[in-house]
Every structure is written in structure tokens, then in C-alpha cells.
Task: structure prediction
Amino acid sequence: GQSLEQPSEVTAVEGAIVQINCTYQTSGFYGLSWYQQHDGGAPTFLSYNALDGLEETGRFSSFLSRSDSYGYLLLQELQMKDSASYFCAVRGGNTGGFKTIFGAGTRLFVKA
Amino acid sequence: KAGVTQTPRYLIKTRGQQVTLSCSPISGHRSVSWYQQTPGQGLQFLFEYFSETQRNKGNFPGRFSGRQFSNSRSEMNVSTLELGDSALYLCASSLAGLESHEQYFGPGTRLTVT
Result:
């Protein structure tokens, strides 16, 4: 089957750096994605890693280690507007079918 | 380019009734996935459609079903509603391709079962 684990909550102060970890189990792994969801809003795509290494997009970076079935999202120069839930998601499957499975989400609280 | 649209946005139903939710993907997107979101449970995968074919299904009872039309629009149906079906139902579209990883979500349909 497929499963993901990520912390339920993280708190950090404005201007700081925070890392949200995600470990996963899946068959037919294609890649690890990250989504952000503000209260009352829809999830929005942040980043995607198919290969090992770090991908940087502005203040956000995402890392993947396929051998460790592990990834993380790094948020730098935290702003109050970054307070949201962050979901890691695994795209996996085989010729019988593909699906994207989401973790339960990490609630990030940014304090002034 | 218009985003993913879902109708209705809010719905209140009674136990035992059935409901149909609709999703229109971004133009050119042929894959549509459905998710159920409840507090503390994250997004639970329901099913994914591509070119009118169900490509995969999550672990939900048979009361949950869906379909996709030739214009890529999709509907999901829940029959014999239960209180536990109260949730936000999200639809997401993506480009064709088995490795399509970037999904665009609609605003969701908030279903309340009383």
C-alpha cells in the first residue's frame, strides 16, 4: 500500500527557517509533491521532486532522497502569510493504475 | 485560463439521500481526481479518471462512484448518505500523462449530512 508520515504541527517565528519532513511508503514511486492549503482554501501546488536532491523555488525548497523514502519542505524567511497546512503527496502506482496519496498535513503556525 | 470549477459549493443533505457533485477541469486537462477532506484526516483519495476511464480507486465503499465525460468534466455520486460523509470534496485536474504530478484543485464542495 501507500502511506505518508509528516508532523501534525510546527511552530516558528517570523523570519526564521522551518523544515517539514515527510517519509513515505509506496509502490511504483514517481515523485514527491508539496501543497499548501490556507484555512478555507483549496490546496495549491508548491513543488515536486522526482529525483534525489534539492529543488529551490524562491523562499521554498524541497528535498528528496529516494533511497531513504524521505523528503522535506524548507521554508525560509518565514512570513505570517505562510501560516497554513502543508501536505506532502506521493505519486505512485503501476500499469494497473496510478494515484496521488496525500499525507495528513502539517499545520504551520508562524508567530510574530 | 479558467481554473477548476466545482458545483455546488455547499450542500446540505439528509441521511439516506444521494448526492451528485460536479467538476469542470482546466481546459486541456484530461485527468480528474477526487478527494475527501475531513479535519485531521488530510485528503483521502477517492478515484482518478482519465479519458473517461477510472484509472484508480481509493478505499471507499461502493456508495461512492464517479464518471468522466468526453469533455473531461467529471461527476461523483454518493448514495445512501451517512453522517460520516460530511466533508469537503475536492476535485483536482492535471495534464495527461501517467506521471502528471502537478494537480490544480477546485474550491471544493462542502457537504453536510444531517
Observations:
- Chain A has a mean pLDDT of 92.
- The radius of gyration of chain A is 14 Å.
